[in-house]
């Protein structure tokens, strides 16, 4: 099957939100709306999932959240970079594109956005949610990230990170080297010319959005999401949920175990050979797991 791609912009708060629709050929399947990570990482890498539309006929909808990518980047109004803004944007996009029924897939921060949306906004028409390498609790995430630093990085890198955390000097070359090692061990990359183009093409990252909402790095959540704690709210959910993570993921199996225990009837799949981007690193298996889950919940 071939799929038609449509792109456009939605007016939002005096700015604009970019969206990208991969039209599936099976109108009987509920569309899948995908939420990218970051905050500020753009939808680009998720495009490897286009073949869900090609293989199954299901329509996919991507967008760049305000603050990054092809959407507006109002860095002069950093107060916009909040969970409330991004939830409102998600709800307005659904109305703008007439997405009355959807499956929702959120990766990393996108999973946090999905959790916030489900827990706080009482959305209608959600058939299921896929929580891909995400978290239910910022404090839990920070503890697990520091455990990974201790368990998987050389002592000199552990010390460089600890020193930067104490001094708040994130420009220190020793810290930057250690942080890069953490990224390579538990997140992703480096990508090269033999990888899908969506992984390597230039993109505008939302650096300000990331720093304002999250912080200076993955393991120091010092931004306005620092008190984001949703595990108890997730216990009240009543819809089909699939949780996924990689065995070497910063979204550790321990983090996912807490979500799995909290959400009644949830399913959980660990990708044995993946870091944070299992949709890339075990692509075929990821597509199989997700498409089977969606099919039984249409």
Brief descriptors of the model:
single chain, eight-stranded mixed beta sheet, globular, 39% helix, alpha/beta, 298 residues, 12 helices
Question: Mind explaining what this structure looks like?
Answer:
By secondary structure, the protein is an alpha/beta fold. Helix content is 39%, strand content 17%. It has 12 helices and 8 strands. It has an 8-stranded mixed beta sheet with strand order 1-2-4-3-5-6-7-8, with helices on both faces. Helix 10 links the parallel strand 7 and strand 8. Helix 2 packs across helix 3. The longest helix has 15 residues. The model has no long low-confidence stretch (mean pLDDT 97).
The low-pLDDT segments are none
* Large-scale geometry: globular
* Biggest sheet layout: 8 strands, mixed
Give the number of DSSP strands.
8
